[in-house]
Amino acid sequence: MKKSLLAILSAILACAACSKKEEPAAIEPVVRTVSVESSALEIPPGESAILPFKVEDKEAVFQEVKLLLDGGREPEEFFLQEIARGTERGTYQAVIQDAGLGKNYERDVHLAILQRSPSTGNEYYVPSSTFRVFSEANPPGTVYTGLPVVYVDTEGGQGIYSKEDYVKASLKIQGTEQYDGLDAVACDIRGRGNTTWYWPKKPYLIKLNEKQSLFGMPKHKRWILLANFMDRTLMRNLVSMKVASMMSHLAWTPSCVPVELVLNGKHVGSYLLIEQVRVDKKRVAVTEMTPEDNVGDAVTGGYLLELDFHYDNEVQWVEPLGRNNYWGDGIPFGIKYPDPEDLTPQQLTYIKGYISETSNTLYGENFKDPDEGYAKYIDVDSFIDYWITFEVMGNHELGNPGSVYMHKDRNGKLVAGPCWDFDWGVLSYNTSPHARTGLVNGNAIWYARLRQDPAFEAKLKARFDELLPKLETIPAYIDECEKLLTESARLNFAMWNPADDASQNGGYIINGDENMSFHNAVARLKSIYQERLRVIPKNL
Description:
Layout (H helix, E strand, L loop, with lengths): L1 H18 L14 E3 L3 E4 L4 E8 L8 E6 L8 E8 L5 E8 L7 E11 L6 E5 L3 E5 L13 E6 L12 E8 L7 E10 L12 E9 L7 E7 L9 H10 L10 E8 L2 E10 L27 E5 L8 E4 L11 E7 L7 H18 L17 H13 L11 E5 L5 E3 L30 H4 L3 H18 L2 H22 L22 H21 L2
Parallel strand pairs: 2-9, 10-15
Antiparallel strand pairs: 1-3, 3-6, 4-7, 5-6, 7-8, 7-9, 10-11, 11-12, 12-13, 13-14, 14-16, 15-16, 17-19, 17-20, 18-19, 20-21
């Protein structure tokens, strides 16, 4: 009886407990913002440094704290040793320890605190603003990737916002075992490029006050820093200039060296320092003209022409084409040299007339005649080598045309070249899907007509066969470039996302490898190049 009574009382108590209203669970405070109190932290080799920080909700509990690079990875050269409470509630100290790898480094980092949503239970990181961690021996702006480092400091630290207006600056170079450095020299700098100027990572034009030899290249005042923003491999221009340099019938190909650029003390990524396309004895070596060169032999050269659909040359025109042409209304020609302020009406009349006569002859009935046909007006060997370079690299810009150059010396024929601007759609099936089985530039500008001459086609095929052993060495060169650029690529793509080029291209990425890793993009580049060497001869 006693036992059953106890059981009844227990049941009553249990029911009473069931009928009690449950108290709502307390909501744990969460971290909403993380504020670091320093934008830069210097760590002595093998030692640690303290970074004070605070959180908005002083009662929040930390589940996990990490140091994260912009790409989401944790740094290798240093690590978060511990978190200590500060003197006031909500304040803390992050103890960051050098990893003892013996490397100099400079990294942009976030302090990220792991939190769990009270409503969903999902985990997420709350990052701080970016701060820079650097080794004691490596002050801000010093970069170690194995590449030379170009330092540009503008007067007063002002920004570079224009393609027309120069900013006064100084330039110096930190060399490597392969390349000499350069003490600070005076220069001017401005932006450059067409579409590329409007992307986040900017290309620049450098004009030195005095001629200098950079990295062993011939002395000159003008140099270009190509950003290669959309190129996940960072080597499309580099490899293309290597291919072009194999073409003995091209008068000149720009030399180039991959570098790191530090602008006003901040590392802004991997760049390609390259010679500017410009008339000069060491570059496009045509006869330099004066405003007095208006008659006779003097007016015949030299000229540097650019064919470009952007129509951004001050002096330009559209050259009509005859019947049986691939291009509709004509080809856009612009004059790069003589400079617009020096170009005379007589010189403009002459070069426009020469181009018109060339085009009319090419589309005329006797265009195949070796003496009176197109060969009278153009240097055929250079046009063949130029086409092979574009075709091997799968560069469709020869057909746009965009950044296509020709030049003419005094009393000379029209010569194709130099090669320039090989980052857009190069070695990619995104822009040229037909390249998988056919030619990219079979119908480009004048080539559609030139290839209707069996003698030209035979010469083109023979030249390709002659060059093939050299072209087959390029995959090994790509491997060398991959090794050279690996660390540079790691730092560059922690800052820049090539897939952002879609915003400038109707929502579509351009090269097709923008979302790949650097190494996968390089493997794809090499594979497509090797396919080009197999596909091209089948279509000649």
